[in-house]
TrEMBL record:
This is PLP-dependent aminotransferase family protein. Gene3D superfamilies: Aspartate Aminotransferase, domain 1, Type I PLP-dependent aspartate aminotransferase-like (Major domain), Winged helix-like DNA-binding domain superfamily/Winged helix DNA-binding domain. Keywords: Aminotransferase, DNA-binding, Pyridoxal phosphate, Transcription, Transcription regulation, Transferase. SMART domains: HTH_GNTR. One of its GO terms (molecular function) is pyridoxal phosphate binding. In the C-terminal section; belongs to the class-I pyridoxal-phosphate-dependent aminotransferase family. The lineage of its organism: Bacteria, Pseudomonadati, Pseudomonadota, Gammaproteobacteria, Alteromonadales. The keyword Transcription applies.
Length: 480
């Protein structure tokens, strides 16, 4: 990460968390430079970026101030907790995902990283080796909880990060999604209340819909994440059985909770005896050099079900994930046995082969570097080609960029117009059962920028401008 980006990120965090309030004067360039050890030019560049994104304004001879009329980000304008008795999102999500399934599409709406960033040849070699050497006992050896060697490798990887997880509590699943669904099933029954972030990964909402669960959507800030006061209110007012949350590189917003907040979240869950389903599929995609930790690291009582997979970091199509299920590991195995029976044995063996023979760490380092580079390039192009009035949030790690259009613009209209031009986006409506994010969209920044993708960003800019002109009266009405 460039040094100025780090400062931009820190200052945004401070503004969002109220350290600097609307109208406050930021430290002078000289002071900031002395304090941070950055050069004056780097600090100036960071302030200019914040200005271009609407966070600060510069005033002749008096330096930079936090934009006086800076509105709280949208989530703060919303109710702390929104209740939804019947989640109904799957048809819309299905429609959007289907529309994006076209090989000619510029796939900014895609959920997975560019597959060309994966070590395909090495993984394929491991698959062939596993197929050639498949032991006769492979079916039995790989029944729940899953391949023992694979579980041990995973436990060791966590241990090197300082997270204590035993191979016995890990259950291998078909992608993170099976892990998440089993976790939800193990601690709820139809009609129970479950907390989700607002906005959240649409897969969480689909699971609630499928299992007949009720949603408590808790206010979540673009930069600082879930509002813990609001979460506590939800716990006080409802008999909440589980929370489905992401603490690292959240989808769709991209934030990572601070370590202190992760600890407070864990304490709060324990105080109210609520299970945590921690979705950590982007946990390996941190900014190189700044590893992130799951909430699970603070869990002393086996209450956190930490779910992840190789889908975003190594290979998407193999569908291998896992859950470190803590005290619910045995129940989870029983549930898997009577739903999907087991995870494919050859695929488990192929990944075991890859992880024991190849250098996964080297691959991850390269992947993180590429994703960071591409996200930075895409952010620059979006800043250049999207009309003013659009707010772009790109955070450390992961590969999503969150875009807020002016209130009153429906991103589903943008989606339909863009699809006609073979460009997909993920409209905000996919990520919430409330209407709060209808003017937002999530963009995938993992793909290489070439003439086609740059043109697609320009086209997207035109589409948004046209929508803004067509909805001028609504925009004016909502902004007063
Ligand atoms: C936040 C989040 N969780 C879970 C998943 C599903 O992961 P997997 O493909 O491993 O099932 C996705 C995929 O898009 C995701 O974005």
């Amino acid at each position: 990460m460039a040094k100025y980006e780090d400062l931009v990120y820190q200052l945004k965090r401070q503004i969002k968390s109220g350290v600097w309030r609307a109208g406050d004067k930021l430290p002078s360039l000289r002071k900031q430079s002395a304090h941070s050890g950055l050069s004056l030019m780097t600090v100036l560049h960071a302030y200019q970026v914040l200005e271009s994104q609407g966070y600060v304004v510069s005033q002749a001879r008096s330096g930079y101030r936090v934009t006086p009329e800076l509105k709280e980000t949208e989530p703060h304008l919303h109710a702390a907790v929104s209740l939804t008795e019947k989640v109904d999102i799957n048809d819309f999500v299905f429609e959007v995902l289907q529309a994006g399934r076209n090989p000619y599409m510029v796939n900014f709406g895609f959920a997975y990283p560019d597959p060309s960033l994966y070590p395909r040849q090495q993984v394929n070699r491991s698959l062939m080796s596993a197929a050639r050497n498949l032991p006769i006992s492979s079916t039995f050896d790989n029944l729940p909880p899953g391949n023992e060697e694979l579980r041990t490798i995973l436990a060791k990887r966590y241990a090197t990060k300082g997270v204590n997880i035993s191979p016995e509590e890990i259950v291998i699943t078909a992608g993170a999604l099976e892990a998440l669904n089993l976790s939800l099933q193990v601690c709820t029954k139809p009609g129970d209340w479950v907390v989700v972030e607002s906005p959240t990964f649409y897969g969480a909402l689909q699971s609630l819909e499928r299992l007949g669960l009720k949603a408590l959507s808790v206010r979540t800030d673009t930069i600082t994440g879930i509002d813990l006061d609001a979460l506590e209110k939800a716990f006080q007012s409802h008999d909440v059985k589980a929370c489905w949350l992401m603490s690292n590189h959240q989808n769709p917003l991209g934030f990572t909770l601070t370590l202190e907040k992760k600890q407070s979240l864990n304490d709060l869950l324990n105080r109210y005896n609520v299970a945590l389903i921690e979705d950590d599929v982007y946990g390996e995609l941190y900014q190189e050099g700044t590893p992130v930790m799951p909430v699970k690291q603070f869990d002393q009582i086996g209450n956190v079900m930490l779910c992840s997979s190789f889908s975003k970091s190594l290979v998407s199509g193999f569908r291998i994930g896992w859950v470190a299920a803590g005290k619910r590991a045995l129940e989870m195995q029983k549930l898997q046995l009577m739903s999907t029976l087991a995870t494919s044995a050859p695929i488990q063996l192929a990944l075991t082969d890859y992880l024991s023979k190849c250098n996964y760490e080297t691959h991850l380092k390269q992947l993180r570097k590429k994703l960071h580079e591409r996200k930075g390039q895409m952010e620059c192009l979006l800043t250049k080609y999207l009309p003013s009035g659009v707010n772009i949030t790109s955070q450390l790690g992961g590969y999503f960029i969150w875009v807020e259009l002016p209130l009153g613009i429906d991103a589903v209209d943008v989606f339909h117009a863009a699809i006609k031009q073979n460009i997909s986006i993920a409209p905000g409506k996919m990520f919430s059962v409330t209407e709060h994010y209808n003017h937002c969209m999530r963009l995938n920044a993992s793909f290489a920028l070439n003439d086609k993708t740059v043109q697609a960003i320009m086209t997207l800019g035109q589409i948004i401008s046209e929508c803004m002109v067509a909805n001028e009266s609504t925009i004016l009405a909502t902004s007063v």
